[in-house]
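Supplementary Methods S3. Input chains for the assembly prediction are listed below.
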Amino acid sequence: MSEHPSRFMLERHCVGDLSPAERDKTVFHLESCPSCQVRIGDMKEQADRDLALAPPGEFVTQLSARMGREERRSSAFRRWAAVGVAAAMAAAAALIIAPRTDDAIALRGSGLQVHRNRDGMAKLMDSGDHIRAGDALRVVVTLPHPEPVDVWFVDATGRVDRLLATGPASLGTGERALPGSAVVDSPCSDMWVVVGVGAASASSAEAALKRLGPGPRNAGDDWVPKGCLARQLRCE
Amino acid sequence: MAPEEITEAYVKYGPYVLRRCRRILGSEAAAQDALQEAFMRLVRRADLFAGAESKLAWLYRVAERCCFDQLSRPATRASRPIEELRMGDPWEPSSAMQTEDRDVVLKFLGGLDAKLRQVAVLHYMDEMGQEEIARAVGCSRQTVVNRLTAIKQRVETFRSERLLSVEAR
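Predicted structure tokens for the full assembly:
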């Protein structure tokens, strides 16, 4: 049997990235090498799992949103640069002290993720997933820089629960996993995860959420406090 | 680049690029972030991507740069305990010693200079042999041998220091 192809060659084979000559050589090897066949199978299986966790539609939406944010930041900078150094410094100061709007919350990577644990099976929730009574929910927020993060659950009855961080849980650059999961009550109703970034807005945001009272929350974000963003969790 | 082209590239290459970022960074969120950054660069330099001989290799190089940018930030380096690197997708090591070498190399990958880092990634991550690395990098096989020796020395130094610190406790 010929020498095993490197992992890189096998990965290229999986995505159809090999030249005809390389492909022929790899296929010839694979025909007589069960261990490389297993490796190929494992690679494809893992790729399918990753795609299921972060479906293409969701990825492209997040990518577009991030590119849009960076483009807006970049064009804003170019505008101010034209005004002159003093004016630009004043603008920068204003940006720092101005209250955040929903759009100004900078999330990176996967941004806001909600993991659901049901009957011992953990799953990263996507837009098609629902919650039901007894589900444990865990929230992961990824920020460009370490900052205080507050997370609340708001339901249609107006109840507001704050998810408390019980200790340091830095998982990476700017990432904060909030340990201790929230368990969905019975009976279950639609809920919203509300995330506030930055210590300054936490108390005012919580007060604003508590003032909401019962009632359906519409898809529009009018009720979401400034400096926060919300994601709906639909009940089964 | 049209959304459907991005989708097509993501479906085809995204999981493999993500897995590579995971191996380098050892954190799911950081890997997702690096994946997004890599695809942003792909969208902006679609012409280069389209002309690349190996599209996967092109994306890997871009993603590695995104990962190493992250690793160069002190907070990221400090937050990567070596045990964390064993999480994520399983490796298929050829020997226990090589697994340990690889974990140690990944631990200080961000601290290597660019030339050593490139060889380390190709050897420990892509499992390339010396000839294959020499072709990929465009240098002689002897240069690859020298660089791998330098990396091994760093591994040994790291192990000795770790042993000393354990004994000191």
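DSSP finds six helices and ten strands in chain A. The first strand of chain A starts at residue 112 and ends at 118.
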